[in-house]
Q: What sequence folds into this?
């Protein structure tokens, strides 16, 4: 039966649309290089990376799940309106809403609309809901709803190297009654299969790819291992354990994880993260980051995530990052502070650069294979 799977993937690869992504410098890196990171974190203290704002719902205002945009690093180009205006957006599986800044938008659709208030891990934005044509790659979505931010100069987004966010999560994460871009791609018959895939390059700024409607097997080695989505909201799945040298160090007895292209780091519960920082010898700096000696990259062990019975090693070369000044930082971070979510992990780009990932909406499953 294996050859049937190969034929199926080959057929999908002939029809898929590839959207080139570019790796950019994150807000965290920009702030650190300008000696502003400590002041920034004091002004915008870390909050939950993901939270629903049910308590604050207002009929006149639409809310988006809060997110920490400090570390987003992969962007693609889309265009909106006629004539088209280009925007650099983060393709984000951890949200489901499209927004861009209205300051750059001269389309009639940008003039007025339903009020929108979007809350993030590092502040809030206000704006309006609009409808217009959105083009991504060679695909054109008509009557797509999106947010137009009215962000004022001097706020946290001035340190970002992107214009907006294009969410690829389930509709449950979107504003009420608003279909995400990917859902409209499928509903309007623009893609042959109800799935998409990410290849995030770890080598160069260019080379990363979002694939819509199909899978290109040349971006991974071996077979795809499929994992059921445990809750169709975020791209959430069940983790078996997290271990080092065969010893479980976190997620004992199982926990939940989110596959999130909009999170750069590997985040988890406070106690588990502190345990990992101690294990790898990372020490807290004055600005709250965890630093360690760069020479340990060649000596530290893999940290192994076991998912659906399959092991996914993350080597020290992936969970330690070196900046332009040759300082080294841990890529593990406390991400969620709500006790009800104590077993939740977010597997961001640190993990996804190692493993090609297929997000299969038709079958509510995630496919993983070693990236090439």
A:
């Amino acid at each position: 039966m294996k050859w049937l799977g190969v034929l199926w993937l080959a057929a999908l690869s002939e029809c898929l649309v590839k959207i080139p992504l570019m790796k950019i410098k994150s807000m965290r890196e920009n702030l650190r290089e300008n000696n502003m990171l400590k002041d920034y974190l004091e002004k915008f203290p870390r909050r939950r990376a993901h939270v629903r704002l049910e308590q604050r719902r207002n009929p006149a205002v639409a809310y988006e799940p809060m997110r920490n945009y400090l570390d987003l690093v992969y962007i693609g180009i889309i265009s909106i309106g006629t004539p088209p205006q280009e925007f650099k957006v983060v393709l984000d599986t951890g949200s489901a809403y499209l927004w861009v800044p209205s300051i750059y938008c001269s389309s009639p659709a940008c003039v007025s609309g339903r009020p929108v208030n979007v809350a993030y891990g590092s502040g809030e934005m206000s704006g309006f809901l609009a409808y217009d044509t959105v083009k991504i790659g060679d695909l054109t979505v008509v009557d797509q709803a999106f947010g137009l931010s009215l962000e004022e100069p001097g706020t946290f987004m001035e340190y970002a190297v992107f214009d907006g966010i294009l969410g690829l999560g389930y509709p449950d994460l979107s504003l009420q009654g608003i279909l995400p871009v990917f859902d409209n791609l499928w509903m309007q018959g623009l893609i042959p299969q109800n799935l998409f895939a990410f290849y995030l390059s770890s080598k160069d700024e260019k080379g990363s790819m979002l694939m819509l409607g199909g899978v290109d097997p040349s971006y991974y080695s071996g077979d795809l291992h499929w994992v059921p989505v445990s809750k169709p909201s975020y791209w959430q799945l069940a983790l078996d354990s997290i271990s080092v040298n065969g010893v479980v160090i976190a997620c004992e007895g199982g926990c939940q994880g989110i596959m999130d292209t909009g999170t750069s780091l590997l985040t988890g519960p406070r106690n588990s993260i502190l345990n990992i920082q101690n294990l790898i010898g990372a020490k807290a700096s004055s600005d709250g980051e965890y630093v360690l000696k760069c020479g340990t990259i060649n000596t530290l062990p893999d940290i192994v995530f076991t998912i659906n019975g399959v092991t996914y090693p993350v080597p020290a070369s992936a969970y330690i990052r070196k900046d332009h000044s040759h300082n080294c930082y841990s890529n593990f971070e406390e991400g969620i502070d709500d006790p009800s979510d104590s077993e939740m992990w977010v597997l961001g780009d640190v993990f996804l650069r190692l493993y090609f990932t297929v997000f299969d909406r038709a079958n509510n499953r995630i496919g993983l294979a070693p990236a090439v």
